[in-house]
Amino acid sequence: MAKEQKVSNATVQRIWKEHNLKPHLVETFKLSRDKRFLEKLYDVVGLYLNPPDKAIILSVDEKSQIQALERTQPLLPLRPGIPARQTHDYTRHGTTTLFAALNMLDGTVIGDCMPRHRHQEFIRFLQIIDTKTPCNLNLHLIVDNYGTHKHPRVQRWLKRHPRFHLHFIPTSSSWLNMVERWFAEITRKRIRRGSFKNLKELIKVIKQYIESHNQNPKIFAWTASVQSIMSKIAISKEALVTLH
Questions:
Q1: Exposure string for 94-130, b = 16+ CB within 10 A, e = fewer
Q2: What is the pLDDT of residue 29?
Q3: Which CATH architecture has domain 34-243?
Q4: Cβ(97)–Cβ(115) under 8 Å?
Q5: Rounded to two decimals, what is the model's pTM?
Q6: In the Cβ-directed half-sphere of 136, how many Cα atoms lie within 13 Å?
Q7: What is the model's pLDDT at position 97?
Protein backbone atom coordinates (compact mmCIF):
# COMPACT_ATOMS: atom_id res chain seq x y z
CA MET A 1 0.00 0.00 0.00
CA ALA A 2 2.84 2.39 0.83
CA LYS A 3 4.42 1.72 -2.57
CA GLU A 4 1.14 2.20 -4.47
CA GLN A 5 0.29 5.46 -2.67
CA LYS A 6 3.91 6.67 -2.69
CA VAL A 7 4.08 7.23 1.05
CA SER A 8 6.21 5.74 3.79
CA ASN A 9 5.42 2.54 5.65
CA ALA A 10 5.13 4.58 8.85
CA THR A 11 2.39 6.73 7.28
CA VAL A 12 0.33 3.68 6.34
CA GLN A 13 0.76 2.22 9.84
CA ARG A 14 -0.26 5.54 11.43
CA ILE A 15 -3.43 5.74 9.34
CA TRP A 16 -4.35 2.16 10.18
CA LYS A 17 -3.84 2.84 13.88
CA GLU A 18 -5.89 6.06 13.83
CA HIS A 19 -8.86 4.29 12.22
CA ASN A 20 -8.38 1.01 14.15
CA LEU A 21 -7.88 -0.93 10.92
CA LYS A 22 -6.30 -4.40 11.19
CA PRO A 23 -5.80 -5.77 7.67
CA HIS A 24 -3.80 -8.73 8.98
CA LEU A 25 -6.91 -10.09 10.72
CA VAL A 26 -9.75 -11.91 8.98
CA GLU A 27 -12.84 -13.10 10.88
CA THR A 28 -15.57 -15.42 9.67
CA PHE A 29 -19.33 -14.88 9.73
CA LYS A 30 -22.48 -16.56 8.50
CA LEU A 31 -25.98 -15.15 8.30
CA SER A 32 -28.78 -17.56 9.09
CA ARG A 33 -31.26 -18.34 6.34
CA ASP A 34 -33.77 -19.88 8.70
CA LYS A 35 -37.27 -18.83 7.61
CA ARG A 36 -38.32 -18.77 11.28
CA PHE A 37 -35.21 -16.88 12.40
CA LEU A 38 -36.99 -13.99 14.11
CA GLU A 39 -39.51 -16.26 15.84
CA LYS A 40 -36.77 -18.51 17.23
CA LEU A 41 -34.61 -15.52 18.17
CA TYR A 42 -37.43 -13.98 20.23
CA ASP A 43 -38.07 -17.36 21.87
CA VAL A 44 -34.48 -18.03 22.95
CA VAL A 45 -33.55 -14.46 23.92
CA GLY A 46 -36.81 -14.27 25.87
CA LEU A 47 -35.74 -17.30 27.91
CA TYR A 48 -32.39 -15.67 28.66
CA LEU A 49 -33.69 -12.23 29.59
CA ASN A 50 -37.08 -13.11 31.08
CA PRO A 51 -37.07 -16.75 32.24
CA PRO A 52 -40.39 -18.23 33.36
CA ASP A 53 -41.15 -18.84 37.04
CA LYS A 54 -40.64 -22.28 38.61
CA ALA A 55 -38.40 -23.38 35.75
CA ILE A 56 -34.76 -24.05 34.92
CA ILE A 57 -33.23 -22.82 31.68
CA LEU A 58 -30.58 -25.18 30.33
CA SER A 59 -28.34 -24.47 27.36
CA VAL A 60 -27.67 -27.92 25.90
CA ASP A 61 -25.32 -29.19 23.22
CA GLU A 62 -22.81 -31.90 22.38
CA LYS A 63 -19.10 -31.45 21.73
CA SER A 64 -18.43 -34.39 19.47
CA GLN A 65 -15.23 -36.09 18.35
CA ILE A 66 -13.02 -34.96 21.24
CA GLN A 67 -9.76 -36.73 20.54
CA ALA A 68 -7.57 -38.35 23.19
CA LEU A 69 -4.23 -37.14 21.85
CA GLU A 70 -0.98 -38.25 23.44
CA ARG A 71 1.83 -35.81 22.67
CA THR A 72 5.20 -37.32 21.81
CA GLN A 73 6.98 -34.99 24.26
CA PRO A 74 5.89 -33.33 27.53
CA LEU A 75 4.50 -29.79 27.44
CA LEU A 76 7.20 -27.12 27.80
CA PRO A 77 5.99 -24.61 30.42
CA LEU A 78 5.84 -20.90 29.70
CA ARG A 79 8.82 -18.67 30.48
CA PRO A 80 9.30 -14.88 30.38
CA GLY A 81 8.69 -13.87 26.79
CA ILE A 82 8.07 -17.47 25.65
CA PRO A 83 4.59 -19.10 25.62
CA ALA A 84 3.95 -22.68 26.66
CA ARG A 85 4.83 -25.08 23.83
CA GLN A 86 3.74 -28.55 22.83
CA THR A 87 4.79 -30.87 20.03
CA HIS A 88 2.78 -30.89 16.82
CA ASP A 89 2.91 -34.69 16.53
CA TYR A 90 0.83 -37.07 18.62
CA THR A 91 -0.77 -40.50 18.85
CA ARG A 92 -4.56 -40.81 18.65
CA HIS A 93 -6.31 -42.97 21.25
CA GLY A 94 -9.95 -42.64 20.19
CA THR A 95 -12.68 -40.05 20.62
CA THR A 96 -15.55 -39.24 22.95
CA THR A 97 -18.59 -36.95 22.81
CA LEU A 98 -19.27 -34.58 25.69
CA PHE A 99 -22.97 -33.91 26.37
CA ALA A 100 -23.40 -30.78 28.48
CA ALA A 101 -26.27 -28.74 29.94
CA LEU A 102 -25.38 -25.27 31.26
CA ASN A 103 -27.74 -23.97 33.96
CA MET A 104 -28.37 -20.33 33.08
CA LEU A 105 -29.40 -19.49 36.65
CA ASP A 106 -26.33 -20.59 38.61
CA GLY A 107 -23.72 -21.52 35.98
CA THR A 108 -23.45 -25.18 36.98
CA VAL A 109 -23.03 -27.84 34.32
CA ILE A 110 -24.54 -31.31 33.98
CA GLY A 111 -22.24 -33.30 31.75
CA ASP A 112 -21.42 -36.81 30.62
CA CYS A 113 -19.17 -38.44 28.02
CA MET A 114 -20.58 -40.99 25.61
CA PRO A 115 -19.01 -42.96 22.78
CA ARG A 116 -21.40 -41.82 20.06
CA HIS A 117 -23.65 -38.92 19.10
CA ARG A 118 -27.04 -40.43 18.29
CA HIS A 119 -30.61 -40.05 19.50
CA GLN A 120 -30.05 -42.98 21.89
CA GLU A 121 -27.27 -41.07 23.66
CA PHE A 122 -29.32 -37.87 23.68
CA ILE A 123 -32.23 -39.66 25.37
CA ARG A 124 -29.83 -41.10 27.92
CA PHE A 125 -28.56 -37.59 28.62
CA LEU A 126 -32.12 -36.29 29.00
CA GLN A 127 -32.63 -39.01 31.61
CA ILE A 128 -29.52 -37.82 33.44
CA ILE A 129 -30.87 -34.25 33.42
CA ASP A 130 -34.19 -35.57 34.71
CA THR A 131 -32.55 -37.23 37.72
CA LYS A 132 -30.21 -34.31 38.52
CA THR A 133 -32.80 -31.52 38.59
CA PRO A 134 -35.66 -30.87 41.06
CA CYS A 135 -38.69 -32.84 39.88
CA ASN A 136 -41.12 -30.01 40.66
CA LEU A 137 -39.58 -27.58 38.14
CA ASN A 138 -40.16 -27.28 34.40
CA LEU A 139 -37.08 -27.64 32.21
CA HIS A 140 -36.55 -25.43 29.17
CA LEU A 141 -33.71 -26.76 27.00
CA ILE A 142 -32.10 -24.57 24.36
CA VAL A 143 -30.73 -26.82 21.59
CA ASP A 144 -29.56 -26.62 17.99
CA ASN A 145 -31.22 -28.15 14.94
CA TYR A 146 -29.15 -31.34 14.78
CA GLY A 147 -31.34 -34.23 13.65
CA THR A 148 -30.66 -36.16 16.87
CA HIS A 149 -32.71 -33.62 18.83
CA LYS A 150 -35.74 -34.07 16.57
CA HIS A 151 -35.73 -37.84 16.23
CA PRO A 152 -39.19 -39.50 16.58
CA ARG A 153 -38.02 -41.51 19.60
CA VAL A 154 -36.88 -38.28 21.25
CA GLN A 155 -40.28 -36.74 20.54
CA ARG A 156 -42.04 -39.71 22.13
CA TRP A 157 -39.76 -39.49 25.18
CA LEU A 158 -40.57 -35.80 25.57
CA LYS A 159 -44.32 -36.53 25.49
CA ARG A 160 -43.86 -38.94 28.38
CA HIS A 161 -41.92 -36.25 30.29
CA PRO A 162 -44.03 -33.10 29.92
CA ARG A 163 -41.82 -30.95 32.14
CA PHE A 164 -39.22 -30.94 29.33
CA HIS A 165 -39.56 -28.22 26.69
CA LEU A 166 -37.13 -27.95 23.76
CA HIS A 167 -36.40 -24.55 22.20
CA PHE A 168 -34.50 -24.61 18.90
CA ILE A 169 -32.08 -21.86 17.96
CA PRO A 170 -32.14 -20.67 14.32
CA THR A 171 -29.93 -22.59 11.90
CA SER A 172 -26.33 -21.34 11.64
CA SER A 173 -26.69 -19.49 14.95
CA SER A 174 -24.53 -21.45 17.40
CA TRP A 175 -23.55 -18.10 18.99
CA LEU A 176 -27.05 -18.05 20.46
CA ASN A 177 -26.44 -21.18 22.53
CA MET A 178 -24.55 -20.14 25.67
CA VAL A 179 -23.10 -23.60 26.38
CA GLU A 180 -20.77 -22.94 23.45
CA ARG A 181 -19.01 -20.38 25.69
CA TRP A 182 -18.41 -23.09 28.26
CA PHE A 183 -17.20 -25.52 25.59
CA ALA A 184 -14.65 -22.90 24.51
CA GLU A 185 -13.37 -22.64 28.07
CA ILE A 186 -12.92 -26.36 28.71
CA THR A 187 -11.23 -26.70 25.31
CA ARG A 188 -8.81 -23.84 25.95
CA LYS A 189 -8.07 -24.56 29.61
CA ARG A 190 -7.96 -28.34 29.69
CA ILE A 191 -8.46 -30.38 26.52
CA ARG A 192 -6.16 -28.54 24.11
CA ARG A 193 -3.32 -28.41 26.64
CA GLY A 194 -3.61 -32.04 27.65
CA SER A 195 -1.77 -35.19 26.66
CA PHE A 196 -3.80 -38.36 27.25
CA LYS A 197 -2.45 -41.90 27.27
CA ASN A 198 -5.87 -43.39 26.58
CA LEU A 199 -9.54 -42.49 26.19
CA LYS A 200 -10.31 -43.31 29.81
CA GLU A 201 -7.81 -40.69 30.96
CA LEU A 202 -9.40 -38.03 28.73
CA ILE A 203 -12.88 -38.78 30.09
CA LYS A 204 -11.57 -38.67 33.66
CA VAL A 205 -10.01 -35.23 33.05
CA ILE A 206 -13.25 -33.90 31.54
CA LYS A 207 -15.30 -35.10 34.51
CA GLN A 208 -12.77 -33.60 36.94
CA TYR A 209 -13.04 -30.27 35.13
CA ILE A 210 -16.84 -30.34 35.41
CA GLU A 211 -16.64 -31.12 39.14
CA SER A 212 -14.13 -28.33 39.69
CA HIS A 213 -16.25 -25.89 37.68
CA ASN A 214 -19.38 -26.72 39.67
CA GLN A 215 -17.61 -26.04 42.97
CA ASN A 216 -17.19 -22.41 41.92
CA PRO A 217 -19.47 -21.98 38.89
CA LYS A 218 -19.31 -19.00 36.57
CA ILE A 219 -22.61 -17.51 35.46
CA PHE A 220 -22.78 -16.73 31.76
CA ALA A 221 -25.14 -13.76 31.53
CA TRP A 222 -26.89 -12.94 28.24
CA THR A 223 -27.36 -9.18 27.76
CA ALA A 224 -28.17 -8.57 24.08
CA SER A 225 -31.75 -7.71 23.17
CA VAL A 226 -33.47 -8.87 19.99
CA GLN A 227 -33.45 -5.27 18.74
CA SER A 228 -29.68 -4.89 19.14
CA ILE A 229 -29.06 -8.24 17.42
CA MET A 230 -31.29 -7.33 14.49
CA SER A 231 -29.54 -3.96 14.17
CA LYS A 232 -26.15 -5.69 13.81
CA ILE A 233 -27.59 -8.15 11.28
CA ALA A 234 -29.04 -5.25 9.27
CA ILE A 235 -25.62 -3.57 9.17
CA SER A 236 -24.00 -6.82 7.98
CA LYS A 237 -26.61 -7.28 5.26
CA GLU A 238 -26.18 -3.66 4.14
CA ALA A 239 -22.42 -4.18 3.88
CA LEU A 240 -22.93 -7.32 1.78
CA VAL A 241 -25.27 -5.50 -0.59
CA THR A 242 -22.77 -2.64 -0.92
CA LEU A 243 -19.94 -5.04 -1.79
CA HIS A 244 -22.03 -6.69 -4.48
A1: ebbbbbbbbbbeebbbbbbbbeebebebbbebbeebe
A2: 60
A3: 2-Layer Sandwich (3.30)
A4: yes
A5: 0.83
A6: 2
A7: 95
